[in-house]
Design a protein that fits this description.
By secondary structure, the protein is an alpha+beta fold. The protein has 16 helices and 28 strands. The strands form seven sheets. It has a seven-stranded mixed β-sheet with strand order 3-5-1-12-9-10-11, with helices on both faces. Helix 10 links the parallel strand 21 and strand 22. The chain starts with 16 loop residues before the first helix and ends with a helix. Bound molecules: dioxothiomolybdenum(VI) ion. Dioxothiomolybdenum(VI) ion binds next to loops.
C-alpha cells in the first residue's frame, strides 16, 4: 500500500484517551461486584527469621472483620514450588505468600485481614500482633558474604561470550581507565497500585487484575490454586503502568484469590503504595569497567564486571552486560557477571532491565576514556563504531545509530561545546553537556501471539487479543494496523484487549508487543479480508472503489444480510521469526543532556535533553514519542532521585511513599526533544517494527552523569547523584 495513504505512521491521538479522561476506562480495583469483601495485608517487620505466634484476638473483635488468614489457616496449597512457576519467573523457588512460618524479607505478607470494608480491613490489620524469632540478615550488597558467578540469563539473551585476551591487551595498551560504579535499588511504582478484584463463582472465577499478562495470570491461578475444574477469566482491560512489576503474577492476585477461595466470596485487594516497595525492585549493582585504547581512542580492551543483587530464593538475572561486547568495535572483551544473594524480595525486571544499569557504567567509562585521550566524547563513539555485532559475529538487521548521533548532536548544538570541564557557565550556574549511547533488544516475543478479526453485524470490524495496553499505546497502534489491512477508516475498527478469554498473547514486555501482537493482528485482518473479498465476489457485491475502502458500509450490510446475520471472522498466529542466525537486531539511541549546577548549592537541573532513536518503523509518532518522553523522565529519576534506600540494621527499605522515594516531578523536567531517525528494517519483524517501550531510558542516566562531570569536573560514579553526594564530592575537591 502507498505509504502516504496508510494510517500506520500517522500521529493519531490515542483511542483510549477519551474513555480514560471520562472515567469509562475501568481499572482492576474499580469493577462493581456484588457482596464484595475487602482485604488488607499484614507485612513482616523483620528481614529474616520465623513467625513464632500471631495474636489475632484484637483484630478479630474489630467490627466488620470476616476472616484473618495466615500460614496456619490458609487454604491448602500443593507444597511443590515448580507449580508456582510463572512465565517470567527466574530460576529458583517462587515466593508463595502465607506458605509457612519463614520470613524471607521485610515487608513480606504474613497475614491477610478480610473485612466488610477496606477501612475495617486496614484498621484491623494494625491490631494483628506477630511475634518473630529473628535471624541475622544481609541486605547490603557491599557486605554480602558470597558472589555466585552466573554465565547465562535463562530465557532471555545470554551474556555474550568473551573474545580475544582482554587482560593482556589491557596491560599492553598506552591509555587505560578503570572505574567502579554503583547503582541503587529502584522501585517500579506505576501510577496504578497493584490491585485485584475477584468475582467468585462456582463455575467461573473472574479476576480483574493489574498485570502485564492476563494469560500468564490465568494459567498461574489455575495451577497454583487447583482451579482446573472452573473457568478462570483474567481481565486487565486498562493498566495504569507496569514497568515490569506486572510481568509476573503479583502478590495481590495470589492473596485475593486465596481469600476468595477460602471464603467462597468475592474479594478485593488493593496494595497501598507502602506495600509496593516490597514487590520487586531493579537490582542494585556494583560494576567495574576497564577500558584500554591507543592514543587515538581506538578500543583495545573492554572488561566489564557486574555484581548484582538477588534474593535468597530466586536468581533474578538482569542482562547488565548485554551490550558491553557488541556496542563498540573491540577485539578483546571480558565479561563477568555475579549475583549476591540478599534477604530481600526478588528483584524484578524494570524497564530496559540490565541495560539501564550496565550501560550507565559502560557509557560513563567511555566518557572517562574520552577525557583520558582528550577527544570529544561523540568523536570517540564514532571512532569505535561497528557495523557488525562482533559478539555474535553477525551483521545487524539495521543500525541507524550513526544517524542518531548526527541528528541528535545537530538538534542539541553539540558542536558549540567546549571540551574542558567547568568551561561553560551562566551567572551562578555551571553548565555541562554530556552524551551517551543507548541500545536495547529488538525482538519478537519467543511465545506465539494470536489475534482474531471479525466483521460484526453492525458493519464494524472487531479485533481481539489477550494482550494488555499498559499505557504504551497498544490499543491505538493495533487499530491503525487493522485499519490499513482492512482498507477501512479507523472509526470502523473496534479493538478489545486485556482479557485472558481472548486469543492467546504473551506478556506485554520486552518492547516486543508492537512487533509481536501487531503481526498477529495484521495476519488475522489479512485472512478476514480474503474471506470477505471471496464471498463478496461470489455474491457480486464487491466494493467498487479500490484504495479507499475495502467495502463500503452498505456493501458489507448486503453481504451480512446475504449471510443472514452470520458474522465472518478469522484468527491468525504469529511465530517469532527464525532469522536469529543471520542477523543481530537492536534498537539504538543517542542522548544529549544539558545540566545546570548551582555553583554554591550543587543543585542539578537537567535543562535540556535530546533523544535521537532508531527503532525501525514508527507506527504512531505520538504514542512512540510518549514512550520516549516517559522513559527519559524515568532516566532523570535514575540519575538524580530514585533510591530505595535500606536501613541495613533493620534490613528494610525505608521509603514508604513518594515523600521519601523521590521521582522527578514537573519542576524537575524541562525540555525533552525526541527525534526518530529513519530506519528501514525488513528482517526484524513482519511490520518492520522494533519497539520503543524501553530504549528511551537506557542512555539518560550516563548522559546526565557525564554532563555533571563536564559542568563541575567531578566524576560521579554512584547513582543517584543526589545534592548531598555532589556537594560532598565538590567539597572534597576544593
Ligand atoms: Mo518490561 S521490564 O519487559 O515490562
Amino acid at each position: 500500500m502507498d505509504q502516504e495513504q496508510t494510517i500506520t505512521g500517522k500521529g493519531i491521538f490515542r483511542i483510549d484517551g477519551p474513555p480514560k479522561v471520562r472515567g469509562g476506562a475501568k481499572y482492576a480495583a474499580e469493577y462493581k461486584v456484588p457482596d464484595l469483601l475487602h482485604a488488607y495485608v499484614v507485612t513482616a517487620s523483620i528481614a529474616k527469621g520465623r513467625i513464632l505466634s500471631i495474636d489475632l484476638a484484637a483484630a478479630r473483635r474489630f467490627p466488620g472483620v470476616v476472616e484473618i488468614l495466615s500460614h496456619k489457616n490458609r487454604p491448602w496449597f500443593w507444597p511443590v514450588s515448580f507449580l508456582y512457576k510463572d512465565a517470567a519467573g527466574p530460576p529458583g523457588k517462587p515466593f508463595m505468600p502465607l506458605y509457612d512460618d519463614r520470613v524471607h524479607f521485610s515487608g513480606q505478607p504474613v497475614a491477610l485481614v478480610i473485612a466488610e470494608s477496606y477501612e475495617a480491613a486496614r484498621d484491623a490489620a494494625a491490631l494483628v500482633d506477630v511475634t518473630y524469632s529473628a535471624e541475622q540478615h544481609v541486605t547490603n550488597l557491599a557486605s554480602s558474604p558470597a558472589f555466585i558467578p552466573r554465565k547465562h540469563r535463562i530465557g532471555v539473551a545470554p551474556v555474550p561470550h568473551p573474545t580475544g585476551d582482554a587482560d593482556r591487551a589491557f596491560a599492553a595498551a598506552p591509555v587505560k581507565i578503570e572505574s567502579t560504579y554503583t547503582t541503587s535499588p529502584e522501585n517500579h511504582h506505576p501510577m496504578e497500585l497493584f490491585a485485584t478484584t475477584v468475582e467468585w463463582g462456582d463455575k467461573i472465577v473472574t479476576v480483574y487484575d493489574k498485570t502485564q499478562s492476563p494469560k500468564s495470570v490465568e494459567l498461574f491461578l489455575k495451577v497454583a490454586f487447583r482451579l482446573i475444574g472452573r473457568k478462570v477469566r483474567v481481565v486487565s482491560s486498562y493498566v495504569g503502568g507496569g514497568f515490569g512489576l506486572g510481568l509476573r503474577p503479583q502478590q495481590s492476585v495470589f492473596l485475593a484469590v486465596m481469600a476468595a477461595k477460602s471464603l467462597k466470596r468475592s474479594v478485593r485487594l488493593v496494595l497501598p503504595r507502602d506495600h509496593m516497595f516490597a514487590l520487586g525492585y531493579r537490582a542494585n549493582a556494583v560494576q567495574t569497567v576497564s577500558l584500554a585504547a591507543d592514543e587515538k581512542g581506538r578500543l583495545q580492551a573492554i572488561r566489564h564486571r557486574a555484581v548484582a543483587a538477588t534474593s535468597q530464593f530466586e536468581d533474578a538475572q538482569d542482562p547488565m552486560l548485554l551490550f558491553s561486547a557488541s556496542l563498540y568495535r573491540c577485539e578483546n572483551v571480558k565479561l563477568t557477571y555475579e549475583l549476591a544473594k540478599l534477604d530481600t524480595v526478588s528483584p524484578c525486571d524494570m524497564r530496559a532491565p540490565g541495560a539501564a544499569t550496565g550501560m550507565f557504567a559502560l557509557e560513563c567509562a567511555m566518557d572517562e576514556l574520552a577525557y583520558a585521550v582528550n577527544v570529544d566524547p561523540l568523536a570517540l563513539r564514532l571512532t569505535n563504531y561497528t557495523e557488525r555485532n562482533q559478539a555474535e559475529n553477525r551483521p545487524f538487521s539495521s543500525k541507524a545509530l550513526r544517524e542518531c548521533y548526527a541528528q541528535g548532536s545537530e538538534r542539541f548544538g553539540w558542536d558549540k561545546r567546549s571540551h574542558t570541564p567547568r568551561s561553560m557557565r551562566e551567572d551562578k550556574e555551571l553548565i555541562g553537556w554530556g552524551m551517551a549511547t543507548g541500545a536495547w533488544e529488538a525482538a519478537m516475543s519467543p511465545a506465539p501471539a494470536r489475534a482474531e478479526a471479525r466483521l460484526r453485524s453492525d458493519g464494524k470490524f472487531e479485533v481481539t487479543s489477550s494482550i494488555t495496553d499498559i499505557g504504551t499505546g497498544t490499543y491505538t497502534i493495533l487499530s491503525q494496523i487493522a485499519a490499513d489491512e482492512l482498507e477501512t477508516p479507523i472509526e470502523r475498527i473496534v479493538v478489545r484487549l486485556g482479557d485472558s478469554a481472548l486469543p492467546f498473547n504473551p506478556i506485554q514486555g520486552g518492547s516486543w508487543t508492537a512487533a509481536t501482537s501487531g503481526a498477529a493482528v495484521q495476519s488475522a485482518c489479512r485472512k478476514l479480508k480474503a474471506k470477505i473479498t471471496s464471498q463478496a465476489k461470489q455474491a457480486g457485491i464487491l466494493g467498487r472503489r479500490p484504495g479507499t475502502e475495502l467495502l463500503s458500509a452498505s456493501a458489507l450490510a448486503d453481504l451480512l444480510k446475504l449471510r443472514r446475520g452470520g458474522e465472518l471472522s478469522a484468527t491468525a498466529t504469529n511465530f517469532s521469526l527464525p532469522f536469529g542466525k543471520k542477523f543481530s537486531s537492536a534498537t539504538h539511541a543517542a542522548v544529549f543532556a544539558e545540566v545546570r549546577v548551582d555553583e554554591e548549592l550543587s543543585v542539578v537541573r537537567v535543562t535540556r535533553i535530546v533523544c535521537a532513536v532508531a527503532a525501525g518503523r514508527i507506527l504512531n509518532p505520538n504514542t512512540a514519542r510518549s514512550q520516549i518522553i516517559g522513559a527519559t523522565v524515568m532516566g532523570i529519576g535514575k540519575a538524580l532521585h530514585e533510591d530505595a534506600a535500606y536501613d541495613h540494621n533493620l534490613g528494610r527499605c525505608m521509603a514508604h511513599s513518594f515523600g521519601d522515594y523521590h521521582i522527578p516531578s514537573n519542576a524537575d523536567v524541562y525540555d525533552i526533544d525526541v527525534v526518530f531517525v529513519d530506519e528501514t528494517d525488513t528482517q526484524v519483524s513482519p511490520l518492520g517494527v522494533k519497539g520503543v517501550g524501553e530504549i528511551g531510558v537506557v542512555a539518560v542516566a550516563p548522559a546526565i552523569a557525564n554532563a555533571i562531570f563536564h559542568a563541575t569536573g567531578e566524576r560521579m560514579r554512584d547513582l543517584p547523584i543526589t545534592i548531598d553526594r555532589l556537594a560532598r564530592a565538590r567539597g572534597r575537591a576544593s
